[in-house]
Amino acid sequence: MSTEKKHTLHPEKWVQLYSDYLYNYTITRVSSDELAKDLVQETFFAGLKSMKNFQGKASERTWLVSILKRKIIDHYRKINSNKGKAEVRMNFYKDGDNAGEWIEERVPNLWSSDADKDIQNDELKETLEKCIEKLPEKYKMVFKMKTIQGFETEEICKELDITSSNLWVIIHRARTQLRSCMESNWFNN
Prior knowledge:
Blueprint: H1 14-30, H2 33-49, H3 60-81, H4 114-134, H5 137-148, H6 153-160, H7 164-187
Helix pairs in contact: 1-2, 1-3, 2-3, 4-7, 5-7
Protein name: Sigma-70 family RNA polymerase sigma factor
Keywords: DNA-binding, Sigma factor, Transcription, Transcription regulation
Domain RNA polymerase sigma-70 region: 15-78
């Protein structure tokens, strides 16, 4: 006899219980409010369609998050196959659960006061976002997936159909271009 708890689905409560959580999870990965809402809605629809596949081994929320992750990956895959047809912008967070990683070679110096730090962090974030947007589409996508969103190398390679060595070449080139852009637009100002 198994002591493992078997979870059940309650789709009538999904919007009330999980929409905020799923939206917050999504917005940190796609930064377009409308796109985030659409992906959450698609997740609920996909969940309804595949309820018969739910085995009860994971909680409802965990199951919905796994569906949402696939929706986000599918979104990036679609962008990759339709270069230039869509643009995705990513938020860059400086702290908390959504923290992005800074380019290792260029960590900024500490600032003197908190007010100056907040102003300069906002300016730095804006400059970095502009520099990321200037990257070629594939570089931008791979850089965001690996560095900001924290996807695993194998997952990125599988989803974008590239080799791991190609991924690391793209990451290196993206960082080199970002360093140059940041030096021109932030550090030398």
